[in-house]
Amino acid sequence: MIKRTAQTTWTKPAGGPVTGKPIARPNRTAEVQAYFPEFVRGLAVSMRHFFKNTKEMMLGQKPDPVLESLEEGVTTICYPEERRPYPERFRGIHRLTLRDDGSPRCVACLCCSTACPAQCISIEAAEYPPGDSKRGYERYPKTFVIDELRCIFCGFCVEACPCDAIRMDTGIHAVPYDSRDQFIYRKDLLMEFSGRDGSRKSANPRHEPGDPTHPGLSRDHMEH
Ligand code: SF4
Ligand code: SF4
Question: 67, 81, 107, 159: least surrounded by Cβ within 10 Å?
Fold first, then answer.
């Protein structure tokens, strides 16, 4: 049986008795406890400013903010009927650029989804079918999905893409849909969008596989 001593790990070291430091309680009078005097004081301050501003506006010493907003030349617009032109570098919703044959330029390298800090890009890669000139050189996205509601429009995906396959130059801002599913943009929709110049292709000068000017390995090098 453990014999309890005067000094165990559960007691203070030997010394004088523990003394607390007294803290003076605030003297809360009935006036301090009640809200009413402060309420009256706040109302008095508001009314003083109200009458002072009204008097100065009526004497013409101060512009009336209501009338001022109705004067001509004030820079307000009737959104959404009128819209300001977006700046050239505005990041609109994404699009996937196309090759000359209408196929996606994306090679499903997953660089964009890896760079995406919001993890809102999902890609499933696939091989081109036998006989296709691109088979063996590169893959294509069987599915390519972007959750536009999760996207923070940072543009990292565009920066990361080595093929100029994804862009944010549509000039379109996200549409306020009423269902969560409508913010899931899939490959076919992303390939439908065009850039501000109306083009859906990429001006990327990258040579295509099978092209005689293609700088990569030819199929002759496949055999040893
Ligand atoms: S813009 Fe940013 S958050 Fe949106 S998909 Fe691209 S990398 Fe992700
Ligand atoms: S869009 Fe670009 S970065 Fe993303 S998977 Fe396709 S080729 Fe790679």
Answer: 81
